[in-house]
Amino acid sequence: MKLAALLFLLLPIVGLAQTQEASPEDEAGIMQAVDDLFEGMKKADAGAIRKAFAPMATLQTVVNKDGKVSVKNEPIEGFATAIGKAKPGDLNEVIDPYQIMIDGDLATAFVPYKFFLKDQRHHCGANAFTLVRLGGVWKIQAIIDTRRECVD
């Protein structure tokens, strides 16, 4: 009897933890936010980079140097400024199909990529995006990525 009562009490908590199925509109909005970031990079448009992010957003990279793993933080403003100094077309992040998960106004997107610098493959990895819907628009709240030598 005690087990049944405990399960009954935990049922609402379990129900809240489940991720909602993404609507086509939400998925399109999330994909647009990700695409806007990569288009901003391709065009070397610092303003477009800034616009893709939510206020107080974070940007991080997982670094594995000689088997020692750490996380490097980069300010969004520094990233946007660096992108703005490139020439349009010099930076191109080609993304593979990715997974989106949504719960209300919070979403994640796991995005494998290949990064090209002046049409030469530079590195590969994956971006893990956290997005929030602010004022009805999906914005990037955080990105953490990996960077490695391409194997294929």
UniProtKB/TrEMBL annotation:
Pfam families noted in UniProt: Lumazine_bd_2
Signal peptide as annotated in the record: 1-17
InterPro entries: FrzH/put_lumazine-bd, NTF2-like_dom_sf
Annotated keywords: Signal
Organism lineage: Bacteria, Pseudomonadati, Bacteroidota, Cytophagia, Cytophagales
Name recorded for this polypeptide: Nuclear transport factor 2 family protein
